[in-house]
Write a structure and sequence with these properties.
With 375 residues, the protein is mainly α. Helix content is 82%, strand content 0%. It is found in: Cell membrane.
């Protein structure tokens, strides 16, 4: 009887300790999310600039090794990025402006087809109209909250401009002083210096691999969907291709939105039969073929369960808008890889014969600016 009481007390103390640890973890997560929400105007330009700097660093290192001042190379990379963004924006604006009227007409016909289908299912005209009005009312709120997360009007424009300027400013210094920045970040981590540099190198490889992989998958999906639209003789193929390419950068939700747009265009231009063929093409491009390509493009380091990807994408979109949606997966992969790295180091310290996990790329621990992505 006396021996059971100390055992019960030990179990109670263990449960109490676990409960307080869980409470502290929840409180810490809540504080971090609150700070992320409050500082999102500063955090998002920083994250985007850091991701772009990681992508450009191998090029900057290669050019700077030819005795060209690193600051000049950093400025040229920033200007090149601005030029690419402006060119894409002009192409997008011209394409949408020239096809806006045709897109509206085709979508109106698609709505008429949906009404006929709803009538065949026994729904009244009032119910169909009510659903349409609810969707129209909800769409701006969803788009505003998920894609931009900004206020309306002049304040939104000013916030975007300030974010772009701040992001370019940060990107310049990250490219110019990459080694200094890496050393400063490593010193702030509660890790040994060698382990911190290895973690930074692995994180850089993950970001490069993810962005390169998403771009390759976006190109493949765009070619397949545009080819299907061309075979089906759909109008506004340019708008369908742009929506497919841009949607590839938003996990799951982007494919759903761009696919729905393509199917609606097919429904409005060719009827239900054409829409079904277009739906088959979209499912083939965003489903089977993408699942076949992704392991070769991303590698094992980015194998994250789809449910986790969906949850972190939605959560990041609510907190940080479009930038959070795009960066949610690589940031999650970096966190998971850091946990693996710490576990590997702990196992290596526990016993010399412990098996070490492989880094995401050979030479990933040589520095942020020296590791090169592979597909």
């Amino acid at each position: 009887m006396t021996t059971s009481r100390p055992a019960a007390s030990a179990r109670m103390r263990a449960l109490g300790t676990a409960g307080w640890q869980f409470t502290g973890l929840v409180a810490a997560c809540a504080i971090v999310l609150f700070l992320l929400f409050v500082l999102r105007s500063l955090l998002m330009p920083l994250l985007v600039a850091a991701a772009l700097a990681v992508v450009f660093l191998p090029l900057v290192d290669r050019i700077a090794s030819r005795r060209i001042p690193r600051s000049i190379v950093a400025v040229l990379c920033c200007l090149a990025f601005i030029g690419v963004v402006v060119l894409c924006a002009v192409i997008l604006a011209v394409s949408l402006y020239g096809q806006a009227g045709e897109i509206g007409t085709v979508l109106d016909r698609a709505v008429d087809h949906l009404r006929e289908v709803a009538a065949g299912l026994g729904l009244s005209q009032e119910q169909v109209t009510s659903v349409k009005q609810d969707v129209v009312k909800a769409a701006p709120a969803v788009v505003t909250g998920l894609v931009s997360g900004l206020a309306d009007g002049a304040a939104a424009v000013m916030q975007v401009v300030l974010g772009v300027v701040l992001g370019l400013y940060i990107m310049f210094f990250l490219l110019k002083d990459a080694e200094i920045m890496e050393s400063a970040v490593v010193r702030t981590l509660p890790l040994p210096s060698a382990l911190g540099h290895e973690a930074a190198g692995r994180a850089a490889v993950l970001v490069r691999r993810y962005l390169l992989g998403v771009t390759l998958i976006a190109l493949v999906n765009t070619v397949l969907v545009a080819a299907g639209a061309l075979i089906l003789r759909l109008p506004v193929i340019g708008a369908i291709a742009l929506a497919t390419f841009m949607g590839a950068y938003i996990p799951y939700l982007g494919a759903f939105i761009s696919g729905a747009f393509a199917v609606l265009i097919a429904l409005g231009s060719g009827g239900p039969g054409t829409a079904l063929w277009m739906l088959l093409v979209v499912i083939l491009a965003n489903g089977s073929l993408q699942n076949m390509i992704a392991p070769f493009v991303f590698g094992s380091a980015l194998e994250i369960h789809p449910l986790i990807v969906l949850l972190v994408t939605v959560a990041a979109g609510i907190v940080a808008g479009l930038a959070g949606v795009i960066l949610a997966v690589p940031v999650t992969a970096m966190a998971i890889d850091l946990v693996r790295l710490l576990r590997r180091d702990r196992e290596a310290a526990a016993g010399p014969g412990a098996e070490r996990e492989a880094a995401p790329e050979p030479g990933a621990g040589d520095g942020v600016g020296t590791a090169a992505p592979q597909t």
